[in-house]
Amino acid sequence: MDILEEAYDYVKANLKDTRFIHTLGVVSVSKKLAELNGVSEDKAELAALCHDIAKNLNVEEFQKLMIQNNVELTEDEKKAPELWHCIVGPIVAKNSLNIDDEEVLSAIRWHTTGKENMTSLEKIIYIADMIEPSRKFEGVENLREEAIKDLDKGVLLGLTSSMNFLLSQGKPIDLNTVKARNYLIWNR
């Protein structure tokens, strides 16, 4: 069995049905964006499959994995358990599926917040997670169109949309998201 088959089986067995359907949407969009941007479709598929690999863990499981792997959270991350799945995701992918491709692991790690100076694969997984077919929010169609035309512009709009949503909800914005957006503005 190859790694993609193993990943499909593992994710299907460990995610809720709705999360698995979302994951398949992220895979579809990621492969298309990879093809358009000269990125390995296999890497995009693997990273997309595993992007939410830790999504259904509970708080105790997150904490145990972070302690076992010497993960030190920032003060902001300690207050944002909704981000823990992307922090622990690479650990689960490595331990459960023996994935050791650092580019794939990094795309899993940064798929929620983004980060400064993202690789093309990191950008693809970030925006594919946001625009996959089951996502329904105001402006998603525009994000889809822009990401297909210009990956950087699509990611910049995605980061802006995410920040605007968090601001409208009175929620904090992860500093990595701010840095990712600033980096794209300064380096486009």
TrEMBL record:
It is an enzyme of class 3 (hydrolase). Pfam families: HD (PF01966). The keyword Metal-binding applies. InterPro entries: Diverse_Catalytic_Enzymes, HD/PDEase_dom, HD_domain, YqeK. The gene is yqeK. CDD domains: HDc. It comes from the Bacteria. This is bis(5'-nucleosyl)-tetraphosphatase (symmetrical). Residues 19-134 form the HD domain. Its EC number is 3.6.1.41. Keywords: Hydrolase, Iron, Metal-binding, Nucleotide-binding. One of its GO terms (molecular function) is bis(5'-nucleosyl)-tetraphosphatase (symmetrical) activity. PANTHER family: BIS(5'-NUCLEOSYL)-TETRAPHOSPHATASE, SYMMETRICAL, SLR1885 PROTEIN.
